């Protein structure tokens, strides 16, 4: 069941769904930076709202009508600080003249500083739904379990069976008039589709991962896959467009659901975060250095292999890991490091803001992309690390997942692909580059060139902007009549 809509007067100041005409769509303009928060007692969903003051849509163009900036509503079940692709999309669309509202969530206190950093300079409107209450989480979890039982018996209620966040996202989207709704992640897809239907507009979907392949091939995960596929099967065919973050993810979605191949929009990063010029080697001390980062430092990321590799590499590299450690996992890495004689060469760094990753990465010699390929999705994705390293001018060392092997061949780095379960192969590769200063300098110069010329967000965002323009055609407002004497 969808939660009741808030009666907050600040929300009611926004245009109502009934004021909107059920026609097609087009682009948007910068939104207000001011953030306005309703009282908790008036916030059934405890949402943090930056009101949009969104214009109402009017019927298709007639004589004398002029185009106006459409409104785009982006919906994600994650916090802004954990979904950099959402933030980049929102800012790119604002920069192209669209008006943008982002509906996201608040789930972890540890992510709040990143959210605040983003909102301090954001040009889009934001509504952050607070999901941190344990009591409310239990209520939503009970509702999810009930929806799963109903779905297992009747095949209905799939929208609420997959993730507890879907219901509050849907309630927020339904009261946010827009000209196009874009869902990120499956939990947001029902919200985008339902809101689009209510407001008589279209919706789209961004697949950062191949979500049916998120889990290992194991019957224990059949239930999760079933609920997910019920959602994507129901809604993907109705999308105005679908985007994917990697070529093989696009292929997988086209094959799995018999839809047109999604448009690939790589998860690239702004060129202005890059160093001005390449450097011959990193500045991190002690060195030589191999660098890796993620939100979490945990298993199934190829780190055990990397620790063993630095232990047997002749060049005695130091491994630097940045992120929040999963409890007990760093202790396991230190145990392995002690066994291979690298106890003093394993370094754990504090997490930092997403917008600083490129500058921080540039301080190291090489970047590690050690995806283990343990799930179908992991074998198909191209990680944020890879493109961060290129913008930073850092040569990536890649495990041989299908997606990484393919892009390595494209960027001339096929000789930097190692067998993902072989620490000996990784050690040999490290020695070849770290033991040859000239080869390292050439690789760093080439990585910097690729980041500046091709693999940057300034280049890639044009695909996204063009798609949204095509999906939001014919948004107009009447031309004001001039007064006659």
TrEMBL record:
Region of interest called Disordered, as start-end residue ranges on this chain: 1-52
Pfam families: Glyco_trans_4_4
Protein name per its UniProtKB record: Glycosyltransferase subfamily 4-like N-terminal domain-containing protein
InterPro entries the UniProt entry points to: Glyco_trans_4-like_N (IPR028098)
Biased composition (Basic and acidic residues): 9-23
Record domain Glycosyltransferase subfamily 4-like N-terminal: where: 81-265
Superkingdom as given in the UniProt entry: Bacteria
GO molecular function: glycosyltransferase activity
């Amino acid at each position: 069941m969808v939660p009741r809509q808030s009666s907050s007067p600040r929300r009611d100041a926004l245009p109502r769904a009934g004021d909107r005409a059920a026609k097609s769509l087009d682009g948007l303009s910068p939104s207000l930076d001011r953030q306005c928060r309703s009282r908790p007692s008036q916030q059934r969903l405890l949402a943090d709202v930056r009101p949009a003051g969104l214009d109402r849509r009017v019927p298709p163009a007639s004589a004398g009508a002029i185009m106006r900036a459409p409104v785009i509503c982006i919906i994600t079940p994650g916090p802004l600080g954990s979904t950099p692709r959402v933030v980049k999309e929102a800012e790119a669309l604002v920069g192209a003249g669209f008006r943008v509202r982002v509906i996201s969530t608040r789930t972890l206190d540890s992510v709040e500083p990143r959210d605040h950093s983003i909102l301090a300079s954001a040009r889009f409107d934001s509504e952050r739904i607070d999901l941190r209450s344990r009591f409310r989480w239990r209520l939503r979890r009970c509702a999810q379990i009930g929806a799963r039982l109903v779905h297992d018996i009747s095949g209905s209620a799939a929208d609420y069976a997959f993730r507890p966040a879907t219901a509050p996202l849907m309630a927020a989207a339904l009261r946010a008039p827009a000209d196009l709704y874009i869902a990120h992640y499956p939990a947001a897809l029902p919200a985008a589709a339902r809101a689009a239907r209510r407001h008589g507009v279209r919706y789209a979907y961004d697949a950062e991962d191949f979500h049916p392949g998120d889990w290992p091939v194991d019957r224990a995960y059949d239930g999760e896959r079933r609920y997910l596929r019920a959602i994507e099967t129901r809604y993907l065919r109705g999308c105005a467009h679908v985007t994917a973050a990697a070529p093989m993810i696009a292929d997988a979605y086209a094959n799995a659901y018999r839809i047109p191949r999604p448009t690939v929009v790589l998860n690239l990063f702004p060129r202005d975060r890059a160093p001005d010029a390449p450097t011959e080697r990193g500045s991190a001390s002690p060195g030589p250095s191999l660098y890796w980062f993620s939100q979490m430092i945990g298993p199934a990321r190829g780190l055990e292999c990397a620790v063993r590799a630095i232990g047997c590499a002749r060049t005695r590299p130091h491994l630097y890991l940045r992120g929040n450690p999963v409890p007990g996992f760093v202790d396991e890495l230190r145990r392995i490091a002690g066994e291979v004689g690298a106890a003093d060469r394993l370094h754990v760094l504090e997490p930092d803001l997403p917008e600083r990753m490129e500058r921080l990465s540039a301080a190291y010699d090489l970047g590690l992309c050690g995806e283990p390929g343990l799930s179908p999705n992991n074998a198909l994705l191209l990680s944020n690390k890879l493109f961060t390293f290129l913008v930073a001018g850092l040569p990536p060392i890649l495990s041989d997942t299908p997606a990484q092997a393919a892009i390595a061949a494209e960027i001339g780095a096929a000789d930097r692909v190692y067998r993902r379960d072989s620490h000996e192969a990784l050690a040999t590769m490290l020695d070849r580059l770290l033991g040859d200063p000239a080869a390292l300098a050439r690789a760093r110069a080439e990585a910097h060139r690729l980041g500046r010329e091709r693999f940057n967000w300034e280049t890639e965002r044009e695909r996204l902007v063009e798609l949204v323009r095509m999906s939001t055609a014919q948004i107009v407002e009447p031309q004001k009549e001039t007064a006659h004497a």
